[in-house]
Design goal:
The complex is a heterodimer.
Chain A (H helix, E strand, L loop, with lengths): L1 E8 L2 E8 L4 H8 L18 E4 L2 E4 L12 E3 L12 H9 L8 H14 L5 H7 L11 H15 L4
Chain B lengths: L1 E4 L3 H9 L3 E3 L5 H6 L8 E4 L9 E2 L4 E4 L4 H4 L3 H6 L1 H7 L5 H6 L2 H7 L7 H6 L3 E6 L2 E6 H4 E3 L2 E2 L6 E7 L6 E8 L10 E10 L2 E10 L6 E2 L13 H14 L10 H23 L8 H4 L7
Parallel strand pairs in B: 1-3, 2-3
Antiparallel strand pairs in B: 4-5, 5-10, 6-7, 6-10, 8-9, 11-12, 12-13, 13-14
Helix pairs in contact in B: 10-11
Classes of the chains: A alpha+beta, B alpha+beta.
Chain lengths: ~160, ~300
């Protein structure tokens, strides 16, 4: 069966006719053309598909799109303000936290949710915040540094 | 297939009476479907927007609504303060995203012998509240879980809450697990303990074990420990009892011998942490991180 679903993504309403069993990452990528969200393991393990649902990180590979009706969905495309990168995006480039880039959108979404909830996280809290995201390239240190740098920048402090 | 998004328990029960299956975070149901383990049910009813299922009510008994998420369990003042073992367990589940959508009721009704919140619920004396179109009943968890992934709930019954008796101030609880990594991990083995003290001596102790039997099991024969101090001798006996009563399997995660040995260690650590909490010591949630159990950072 298919349903006419209204998905609210990055502040834009997308009416879309989809089969009930479609996963959210597939609908974002294939129906809405928002290919920033990646599909890695398709098993809720790697975090490449992370999006925010009402501000909280969710593995969109394993979430049914119809269940996201009425929720505010945020994808990596929603981070930048026009041509101006989000501070997390700018900092992850500056620290060298991007290599192949496949994990980057998911990392950014987990980091964004963390900083919204906890603007001044400890190193341990950053590690926990990103613990659902795997990276095969960087060794994580530079990703952690990018989140830390963003927190410092947003707080205007050296904490 | 079809999906109805419900906003009241009555709507959920009507849909279930017509054959729909409930879904909350979908962290077992949808993942299982994507893995090809089990197709999605023909009809689903989403229960995660039913406000009354998401409430935590303090009192005697305490009541935790079925759709309370792991993220909330690990930070809620009532759960952390009075039902600490549940908070310990919730904090170890999956990753932040799993904990945001995964629910206590879902964990209970999925019936995995490796579920983290199961052993804490057993030692705290929790019962599952099952509601159907024809009424409500409460079921002890050792009667609910009948095998791996199996429960005694009838098809039209929804788990609406976990109901937990009030506890004396001189009690404490803890859950520890053996893990190979610190996130996105399932217990190799795990143990929960609830201890009530009378002065310096133990007046009651309950222990339950994770991933060493077809269901979560409770350790028997602990009455003899009443009246003793929780010292190394008592902890050694606890470890021996847990190992004896385990009936673990070998799989890719661990051999049966390794599980039988380590379940004793986990049981000893759980009782130690629960007794220390009962005595008023602050051990932060989860015990695994506070005491450095599991993989190193």
């Amino acid at each position: 069966m298919s349903d006419l679903v209204n998905l609210q993504v990055n502040g834009v309403a997308y009416p879309v006719q989809i089969a009930t069993d479609r996963n959210l990452s597939g609908v974002l990528r294939d129906e809405l053309g928002l290919t920033g969200t990646k599909e890695g393991c398709d098993d809720c393990e790697c975090g490449a598909c992370m999006v925010l649902l009402d501000g909280q990180p969710v593995n969109s590979c394993s979430y049914l799109a119809v269940q996201a009706q009425g929720r505010e969905i945020t994808t990596v495309e929603g981070l930048a303000d026009g041509d101006e990168l989000h501070p997390l995006q700018r900092n992850i480039l500056a620290t060298g936290g991007v290599q192949c880039g496949f994990c980057t959108p998911g990392m950014l979404m987990s980091a964004e949710a963390l900083l919204e909830r906890n603007p001044d996280p400890t190193d341990e809290e950053i590690r926990i915040g990103l613990s659902g995201n795997l990276c095969r390239c960087t060794g994580y240190a530079r990703i952690l540094a990018a989140v830390k740098a963003t927190a410092v920048e947003l707080n205007g402090s050296g904490a | 297939m079809s999906m109805q998004i419900a906003t009241s328990v009555d709507e959920v029960l009507s849909a279930m009476a017509a054959g729909a299956r409930p879904i909350a975070g979908g962290t077992d149901l949808v993942v299982g479907h994507r893995q090809g383990k089990a197709p999605l049910p023909e009809a689903l009813v989403a229960i995660d927007r039913v406000a009354e299922l998401g409430e935590i009510t303090d009192g005697d008994p305490l009541r935790i609504g079925a759709t309370v998420t792991h993220a909330r369990l690990m930070t809620d003042d009532v759960v952390v303060g009075k039902l600490t073992a549940i908070a310990d367990a919730a904090a170890l589940v999956g990753s932040p995203s799993t904990r945001n959508v995964g629910t206590l009721g879902g964990n209970v009704m999925n019936g995995s012998p490796a579920m983290d919140t199961g052993a804490p619920l057993i030692v705290l004396g929790a019962e599952a509240e099952l509601t159907s179109a024809t009424g409500t009943r409460t079921v002890a968890l050792d009667e609910l879980w009948t095998g791996p992934g199996r429960t005694s709930a009838e098809p039209g019954e929804l788990c609406t809450a976990l109901v937990i008796p009030g506890r004396p101030d001189t009690s404490g609880s803890a859950y520890v697990r053996l893990e190979y990594r610190r996130a996105m991990e399932i217990a190799v083995v795990g143990a929960a303990a609830a201890v009530t003290l009378d002065g310096a001596t133990v007046s009651s102790v309950r222990i339950a074990l994770t991933a060493v039997a077809p269901t979560i099991i409770e350790v028997s024969g602990l009455d003899a420990l009443a009246g003793r101090v929780p010292d190394d001798g008592l902890l050694a006996e606890v470890a021996e009892l847990a190992a004896e009563q385990a009936s673990p399997i070998s799989d890719l995660r661990a051999t049966d011998r390794y599980r039988r040995h380590t379940i004793g260690v986990m049981a000893r650590r759980a009782v130690d942490a629960a007794a220390r909490r009962a005595a008023g010591e602050e051990i932060s949630v989860p015990v695994n991180r506070a005491l450095g159990i599991g993989a190193a950072a």
